[in-house]
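R.M. (postdoc): so does anyone remember the format we settled on? I'll just put the structure tokens first.
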């Protein structure tokens, strides 16, 4: 009888651990309140960055490392998850002002840090330039010159970076990465900038373009939560370091086919 009750208790515990909201995974209540004040974790997923997130063709949950991290966090907090989806990082940042999400997956940037508390990076990706195949521009350094127009996604990590770094070329902004690439071709702009993997994929589909070798920036992708959630961000920083060191991030990248993205090195936590 005692053995039967013990087995039942183990089974019940296992079942409860799979039910959102059943029980927080030894997470302090103030952390749960910080990260899921509405009783559910509203996770912003940016499908505009295909390295981090991909749509499920069958209409299921988001695929990729962002979705995997969000689901694991919700499981630990013991709350249900709600995906708040976007097609561009700039739109994720704009939605911060409306209080539309609790956690997001974005590149670290000083402009965004005014309203978002970030963890250390969990993935490092690169920014690359696309040019017409016959372009005289051969290196990343060649791009910043008078008369060069660069198509970018408004509010993206590379837009924010290039806004600070570019002195002579002109940035031409579109709402999302695909729209920026479309404008690049339609208006015959000199350059398009973006995350390296989608840029390389685009060049393969359009033989009249090519990717400038190397990178113009390193993009550090991190988790973030709105400022003022101090207990929450402290927990998130430790969570991300654990997810990196345990192999969770590497496995998520491999599972989603993102073999060119690198797991970020360890970051110090308080």
């Amino acid at each position: 009888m005692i053995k039967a009750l013990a087995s039942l208790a183990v089974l019940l515990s296992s079942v409860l651990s799979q039910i959102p909201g059943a029980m927080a995974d030894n997470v302090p209540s103030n952390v749960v309140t910080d990260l899921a004040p509405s009783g559910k974790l509203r996770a912003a997923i940016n499908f505009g960055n295909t390295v981090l997130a991909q749509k499920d063709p069958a209409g299921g949950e988001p695929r990729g490392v962002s979705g995997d991290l969000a689901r694991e966090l919700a499981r630990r907090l013991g709350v249900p998850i709600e995906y708040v989806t976007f097609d561009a990082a700039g739109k994720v940042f704009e939605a911060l002002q409306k209080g539309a999400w609790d956690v997001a997956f974005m590149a670290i940037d000083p402009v965004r840090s005014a309203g978002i508390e970030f963890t250390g990076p969990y993935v490092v990706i690169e920014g690359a330039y696309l040019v017409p195949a016959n372009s005289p521009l051969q290196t990343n350094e060649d791009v910043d010159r008078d008369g060069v127009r660069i198509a970018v996604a408004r509010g993206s990590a590379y837009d924010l970076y290039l806004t600070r770094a570019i002195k002579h070329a002109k940035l031409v902004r579109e709402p999302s990465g695909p729209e920026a690439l479309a404008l690049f071709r339609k208006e015959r702009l000199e350059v398009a900038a973006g995350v390296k993997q989608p840029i390389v994929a685009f060049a393969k589909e359009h033989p009249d373009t090519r990717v400038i070798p190397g990178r113009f920036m390193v993009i550090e992708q991190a988790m973030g939560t709105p400022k003022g959630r101090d207990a929450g961000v402290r927990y998130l920083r430790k969570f991300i370091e654990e997810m990196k060191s345990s192999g969770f991030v590497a496995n998520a990248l491999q599972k989603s086919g993102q073999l060119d993205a690198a797991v970020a090195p360890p970051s110090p936590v308080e």
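R.M.: ...and that's the designed sequence above, right after the tokens. Also worth knowing: Residues 2-17 form the longest helix (16 residues). Residues 91 and 155 are 7 Å apart (CA to CA).
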